[in-house]
Design a protein that fits this description.
This protein is an alpha/beta fold. The chain has 8 helices and 5 strands; from the N terminus they run βαβααβααβααβα. A 5-stranded parallel beta sheet has the order 2-3-1-4-5, with helices on both faces. The longest helix is centred in the middle third of the chain and has 25 residues. It starts with a strand and ends with a helix.
């Protein structure tokens, strides 16, 4: 089975719910599981997360600055957490990873795609997910789910973006899935949580 698994998608797609469910399932199956989220996961990466998502920096942070900060947090996470865990035989289960940067900063911000890919290769090296599940939902459904989420009310700098930004991000994810069929699996995330979970598990057992 793949040892480095990532769940990706725009906000409200349901990936975090599935990360929790999948982690519990794999542990019951006898695997050692490490759950990570991005940006974050180490003292340095969490500090960078606070800068990236700070709503006070809306319309202030340069797009390249944002790109570099995400990859700085990722490089630290790989060095400090991901690399040791994989070498110890853990299954690493990621709530977002490098494809988020390609979708949000590359397609969403309109930065040069090849430049973003090159930077991702520098930050990640060989530590890249073996399997990525990309959760796809319309932007309208994403907004509806986020507005109805009374438990996890979020208002960070990225979530303040307009619909056209998230449309570009969604298009980016669809492009990524199409260009990487050997490692990416596209999921219709408008389906029930139970159906999505069964779909994921069936693909992991293949």
């Amino acid at each position: 089975m793949d040892r480095f698994i990532c769940l990706e998608g725009i906000d409200g797609c349901g990936k975090s719910t599935q990360v929790a469910a999948l982690g519990d399932f794999l542990e019951k199956e006898g695997f050692k599981v490490l759950r990570i989220r991005e940006p974050g996961g180490t003292e340095i990466s969490e500090a960078i997360r606070q800068v990236i998502l700070n709503p006070g920096y809306k319309d202030k942070m340069n797009d390249l600055t944002e790109l570099f900060l995400y990859n700085a947090a990722r490089a630290q996470l790989i060095h400090e957490v991901v690399k040791p865990a994989l070498r110890k035989g853990f299954v690493v289960l990621a709530d977002r990873f490098a494809y988020s940067t390609l979708a949000y900063q590359g397609f969403g911000r309109g930065l040069d795609i090849e430049m973003v890919k090159n930077l991702l290769r520098m930050a990640c090296g060989v530590f890249f997910p073996n399997k990525t599940f990309i959760f796809d939902i319309p932007v309208s459904l994403s907004k509806e789910r986020r507005s109805n989420d009374t438990v996890n009310k979020r208002d960070d700098r990225i979530e303040k973006e307009q619909d056209d930004f998230f449309e570009r991000v969604r298009h980016g994810y669809l492009t990524i899935a199409k260009e990487n069929p050997e490692t990416c699996v596209l999921i219709n995330a408008a389906r029930s949580k139970e159906d999505i979970f069964e779909f994921i598990v069936s693909h992991l057992k293949d």
